[in-house]
Write a structure and sequence with these properties.
It is found in: Cell membrane. The longest helix has 46 residues. The protein has twelve helices and 14 strands.
Length: 442
């Protein structure tokens, strides 16, 4: 009996009991839909959290915040930076020194403060820093500012109470609107000696503006100055990194304040972290956070899939009943096939194909329904949550996500369960006595 003949036999017999087959397929579809939709919640929230971590911090970035040498804490300087750069898999090592005070920047009757650092631009560029406008500094008095630095500037000839709204936000009409590129601004630092405060002003030129951060809600108001400017500030204050008070000098590190190593890819982060730990460095990478998130959500998703599988097992009872009835109704047909010399394996194969066919129809309908429900849930639930709680969900947040891996898992589970459900009735079909079957037909 050819496979095509088997399919014709199956389809013709299924048409004779449409209602029963339809209800069985419907039960299988509902069970598969339940499994996929339930598990998709775990996949959706997992994807959202992973996306948030990746966009907030570079997953190939390793933060190095200290060095333990022979049980003592040591500052990280150029020698240590070179050692890290020579480690296998390291793409770049960014380092910066922070000015120990917040200077005042003035231009066009506007003034504001800015977090000021001395950055190593070659490594910053290699690690992914982008200059959106202008160029990198070439002279000692040239600086680069963050994309949102202009938001720090406020007019000096206006009353503070009239330029800010009730929420403390600067009113649009008082915001600095001119281009900062090529602008000469003054940088004013101060020091305190014997209770008397003195100021020192340096003129600098903005030659570049960095690209905005990856996340829209983040702001970059950093000011990048040169080593020469830092040295001039230190000469004025007489302290390390321009600390205002001499007493603060003892608490300010002369080494680098922020060091980040970058791997070529996420897989290399673990190896670099292990090398750093072996050398006594204190290091942390967002990849470690991703690893923990992945472990937790793998357990959650496995649990949700298990619960959904129970629904499919329950639905398989319907398939078992349908196939048992099919064997009973087709006893005369089975007897004729046996009389004509059909092998028991072929008869068993026919009924296993039928149970698989019912399961396949159920899983296909269930997957289509799941995608529809997932789409509606992501739109509807977002609107409901934001409407009820008046809170804006993170951009790109998804309650439900159905990856191809979940579809494949569902198909495998459903087909496995349906084949097992149909195996006993199929075996029963091979045990039908030919004479009794033919006598029943007569």
């Amino acid at each position: 009996m050819k496979l095509q003949d088997q399919w014709q036999f199956i389809r013709s017999n299924m048409k004779k009991s449409k209602s029963r087959v339809y209800m069985t397929v419907l039960a299988s579809a509902m069970a598969c839909t339940f499994l996929v939709v339930l598990a998709s919640v775990g996949f959706g929230i997992h994807d959202t959290l992973i996306k948030d971590v990746i966009e907030n911090r570079n997953v190939t970035q390793i933060e190095i915040y200290g060095l333990d040498k022979d049980g003592e804490s040591k500052e990280i300087g150029d020698e240590e930076i070179k050692q890290i750069e020579n480690m296998e898999g390291v793409k770049a090592v960014t380092r910066s020194k922070e000015l120990a005070q917040t200077p005042v920047y003035r231009t066009d009757n506007y003034a504001g403060h800015g977090w000021t650092v001395v950055s190593h631009f070659p490594s910053e560029i290699e690690a992914g820093m982008e200059v959106e406008e202008g160029r990198l500094p070439e002279n000692a008095n040239e600086i680069i500012v963050g994309h949102h630095f202009s938001n720090e500037l406020i007019p000096q000839d206006k009353d503070v109470n009239e330029i800010f709204d009730a929420n403390g936000e600067l009113l649009e009409e008082f915001a600095y609107k001119d281009s900062l590129l090529g602008k000469e601004i003054s940088l004013t630092v101060s020091k305190e000696t014997n209770g008397k405060e003195e100021e020192h002003t340096l003129n600098v030129t903005i030659v570049g503006i960095t690209a905005p951060p990856a996340r829209g809600w983040m702001e970059d108001r950093t000011v990048h100055i040169s080593e020469e400017l830092l040295a001039e500030i230190e000469d004025f204050t007489g302290t390390v990194k321009g600390a205002v008070h001499e007493s603060e000098d003892h608490y300010v590190s002369s080494g680098y304040d922020r060091i980040h190593a970058y791997a070529h890819n996420m897989e290399g982060v673990v190896d670099i972290s292990e090398q750093l730990n072996e050398e006594g460095y204190y290091a942390y990478s967002p990849a470690e956070e991703l690893k923990n998130i992945n472990v937790v959500f793998t357990i959650v998703k496995a649990g949700l899939i298990f619960i959904g599988t129970i629904a499919i097992i329950i639905a398989s009872i319907g398939i078992y009943n349908t196939m048992t009835m099919a064997v009973t109704e087709r006893t005369p047909d089975i007897g004729i096939m046996k009389a004509l010399g059909a092998h028991p394996k072929k008869i068993k194969q026919i009924f296993l194909l039928e149970s698989s066919y019912i399961g396949l129809l159920g899983v296909l309908i269930g997957i289509v329904a799941s995608y529809i429900i997932s789409f509606i849930a992501n739109i509807g639930l977002t609107m409901i949550v934001e409407g009820m709680f008046e809170e804006q969900l993170p951009e790109g947040f998804r309650f439900s996500s159905i990856p191809l891996s979940l579809v494949a898992i569902t198909v495998i589970i459903c087909l496995t369960v349906t084949v097992i459900s149909g195996s006993k009735p199929a075996k029963k079909a091979t045990q039908v006595d030919v004479l009794q079957a033919l006598r029943r037909e007569i």
